[in-house]
Queue: 3 jobs
Job 1
Amino acid sequence: MMFRVWDTTLMICFSVSLMFVGADSITALPPPENLTFKWETPFTLNLTWEKPKDLRQNCKVNYTVEVRHSQNCSEKPKLDNSQTRRVQNTSCKFNISNVNGLCISVTVNPENCGNKNPSPPLERSLSRPKVLLVTNRSYEYSHERLKCTWTPVADIQDLSFYYWSHKNETVIKCNEQKIGECIIHSAFLKDEPEMFYLFNGTSNGERVNNTFRDERPPHYVKLNKPKLKIQRSGNTLLFKTEASDLNEFKSCCYICNYTYSMCDKIPQERLRNDCEDGNEVVVDYDSNCKYTARVQIIFSERCGAGKSDPSDEVEYGENRDPKLLALLAVIIIPLIVSCCLIVSLVLLRRHKDIIFPKIPEPTLIFKDILINNIRTTEDLRSPADDRLYVPLEEIVESKISLEPEAPLVLNTTDKQV
Ligand SMILES: *[C@@H]1O[C@H](CO)[C@@H](O)[C@H](O)[C@H]1NC(C)=O
Ligand SMILES: *[C@@H]1O[C@H](CO)[C@@H](O)[C@H](O)[C@H]1NC(C)=O
Ligand SMILES: *[C@@H]1O[C@H](CO)[C@@H](O)[C@H](O)[C@H]1NC(C)=O
Ligand SMILES: *[C@@H]1O[C@H](CO)[C@@H](O)[C@H](O)[C@H]1NC(C)=O
Ligand SMILES: *[C@@H]1O[C@H](CO)[C@@H](O)[C@H](O)[C@H]1NC(C)=O
Ligand SMILES: *[C@@H]1O[C@H](CO)[C@@H](O)[C@H](O)[C@H]1NC(C)=O
Ligand SMILES: *[C@@H]1O[C@H](CO)[C@@H](O)[C@H](O)[C@H]1NC(C)=O
Ligand SMILES: *[C@@H]1O[C@H](CO)[C@@H](O)[C@H](O)[C@H]1NC(C)=O
Ligand SMILES: *[C@@H]1O[C@H](CO)[C@@H](O)[C@H](O)[C@H]1NC(C)=O
Ligand SMILES: *[C@@H]1O[C@H](CO)[C@@H](O)[C@H](O)[C@H]1NC(C)=O
Ligand SMILES: *[C@@H]1O[C@H](CO)[C@@H](O)[C@H](O)[C@H]1NC(C)=O
């Protein structure tokens, strides 16, 4: 009984002390203080803050810094909407755009500080620019030229367009500027890891700037419309692409997308990687089919993004239905032939007399000649006789008499007599 009481008391004491230790361990670190920011360039934000004052001497911490593209810090972070960095210093830089405003948050993490939890974040929001200057930005890249286009939103007289060169670490003004369009020429465009653009101007006497971050130029590759050539080679067709601008990147960056249909069936697709000028794909050829084909060049996603316009449609061959031909051969032609035969037979019967006039029976003529000949050999001894042909009297019908049968009856009576 005594042991039991001791046990429970010990147990309770142990639990209570554990609870105290646990409560101590889950205390969070205090947040950082005095967060300030400075735009070092139109695209580079320098953040500085201070270590919380009430930290124990031996407590080592580091910081998580997050910058989100939203001026509303209570909005939940979206994917692909923020940059996060973990640093030991009380300062860090971000290359970032300002057009949607920013929410900056800094958290203190214990690195070697006993059992502590990270601090709640210190947040600061940067509101978005007062005026949105442009919208609808789009890009087309080809051969060291990047064509940028946009739609101006506000009526800004001195609207200027700049871009950031990572190589050069400078802001460069685009000189070839028209309304809503500018072309950047640079050999470095291909190698930029990302692109930053600045639009600025004066609105109601105030200087306004908008900065944007976009993909690197190979994500906006624009290829010329190719030409498709179809050639026959035995039982196959060769689809050939003719395009002159597939030389800027490695050949594995270009894909030829051939779409063709034969005999008006559902279009089929044939892809060819390593697409270059003059490259071809081989397709089985059915000579009873009409082929229609076109080609489009796709810039591989391994290298970036983009495509050409589809080529004009090219046709090859004729549609001939082999079943119809067989049907014609097997049924219709014999049908026509027999029809002709029947018709000609009927006509023949009807107009027999005209078509075949009556000619004497050939057997008679032969017999006649034969008999005549025999007579002549007999008559050779009497040379006085003429060797003329004397036609035999026709005796065929002479024996037929249409008299009544009375004589027959008479005959019988004769016999009886
Ligand atoms: C933050 O700034 C205020 C005023 O400038 C100063 O009194 C305070 O000590 C600073 N905090 C830290 C942690 O340095
Ligand atoms: C851009 O505008 C912001 C205010 O929206 C201002 O703080 C910043 O200094 C401006 N940057 C440039 C390069 O003009
Ligand atoms: C900020 O976002 C939250 C959550 O989306 C929303 O409730 C709040 O109204 C927003 N505040 C502003 C000023 O837009
Ligand atoms: C941190 O700051 C120290 C001096 O203040 C500097 O030498 C060091 O390069 C900085 N480190 C980083 C990662 O910024
Ligand atoms: C930010 O600017 C401060 C001076 O304003 C400088 O001491 C600090 O080194 C800068 N931070 C970075 C990461 O360069
Ligand atoms: C910050 O501290 C954590 C431990 O809490 C550690 O894992 C991390 O590597 C540290 N980061 C830096 C940049 O020192
Ligand atoms: C965006 O640009 C396209 C042409 O580039 C145009 O047709 C369209 O109307 C524009 N949209 C807006 C909202 O200005
Ligand atoms: C920001 O851009 C500069 C210049 O292009 C580059 O040197 C630096 O590494 C970039 N910083 C970050 C954090 O990406
Ligand atoms: C850097 O920019 C300057 C001025 O715009 C230009 O003269 C120079 O050629 C550029 N250098 C590079 C490497 O882009
Ligand atoms: C636009 O930005 C450039 C580069 O930062 C600057 O030289 C120019 O004065 C700015 N113009 C206006 C109107 O803010
Ligand atoms: C090839 O082109 C056809 C027709 O334009 C399209 O439907 C298909 O998605 C394309 N294929 C690829 C891999 O892009």
Job 2
Amino acid sequence: MDNKKIVIAVVIVLLLLIGLFAFHIIHICPFDAKATFTYNGHCYALYEPKDKGFSWYEAKRACESKGMHLATFTSEEEWYMIKSHFDLPTDYAIWIGYTDKGEKQNHFVWITGEKDGFEYWNSGEPNNIKNDETGETEDCAIILSKSRSNEALWNDYLCSKSKYLGNEKIGYICESE
Ligand SMILES: [Ca+2]
Ligand SMILES: [Ca+2]
């Protein structure tokens, strides 16, 4: 094979690789999100609450219907990448894939089963407050809106609620594997 043919072969292989990479990025990041960000081969997609907000269960199902899961932050680096690249909202809270439902209370686990000790709780959280009417305890983690926490700290909250403290709708972040 002469040099020209080798160069053409290399260019074809490179174009195929670039095409595959582009397809991968486009394919795994949904178009209907408010914002998306790709880090470490994972797509993160932020969804606004829209009309009424989402319960944690609705948010979890919505991510699953897109072939994704509620976002999990298993290292400090991962969390800070998301926190700095997403313009986190001032006016709504966000569900993430962190829960202590069915676990020892205040011992939260990532829904993917990933093991990591990284947490970013607001001071005094998680506090597992019980709703006196329903008996439900706070078992699902949200990222607080920036109007409540400029640092976007986390709180445990009632999984069945689609609004935070009565009036602030809750959105969510999905992540692809
Ligand atoms: Ca709890
Ligand atoms: Ca709480």
Job 3
Amino acid sequence: MLPLVVRISDDDERSAEQLKLDGWREIEVLETWQHEAPQYFADDHLLTTPNDLDWPFIIRLVGEVEWQDRLHRDRAVLKTYADQAKVDWITAISKCPTRKTYALIRRDENKGPDPMWCGGFIAVWPGSEFDTIDLWAVRPDYQIADAQPYWWLGTSRQLLECAIVRSASKRLRAGTQETNIAARTCYERIGMKIMKRQRTFHK
Ligand SMILES: CC(C)(COP(=O)(O)OP(=O)(O)OC[C@H]1O[C@@H](n2cnc3c(N)ncnc32)[C@H](O)[C@@H]1OP(=O)(O)O)[C@@H](O)C(=O)NCCC(=O)NCCS
């Protein structure tokens, strides 16, 4: 059973006190990141829109990544349950025709178009003012040199840039935990800024 969730502004001390008195557990601070203006990058990324054969590799990657989302941070939620929720989410994304997903899929040229593994993926929800990141991850043991000739770019940056280039607004919005240093650093690097901070409570 998913915990109930409530989010309040990070400066709303009064509501925070009341929620704690009412038995809510404080879990995390969620930051919303966004570009202030459209961002333009060259579309020379090695990413593809996944096909039916690629999706199992993306779903497997989701199961292998260390997630820092609210379910994983809540000690009252079993890790196996939080992991399964993430896999369920990516499975739902894979079936949703309005989402857009791009992935770095490694194929063995000698064996044809079959995927070998997924180096990373980004799934976004398209919007007219900005596209919102649903989920993105990079394979933990991914060797950056494997991405040649784009090895200097880095998979995480490729994923973000690709999503921006192919969005109508040329802007991304993302929600992330203030403790997720890797994701925050990536957002900063491509010029995103924090526009909102919210304290998150579970019950
Ligand atoms: C978020 C994510 C996609 C970023 O991809 P990545 O390949 O790890 O990104 P990078 O290696 O370019 O790391 C970005 C920066 O953060 C830094 N960083 C990463 N983890 C860090 C940590 N635990 N502490 C301090 N800095 C850290 C890196 O050193 C790098 O900075 P640098 O180039 O100046 O050294 C990846 O970490 C990931 O899959 N995380 C798990 C899933 C997730 O959190 N997704 C985002 C929310 S949906």
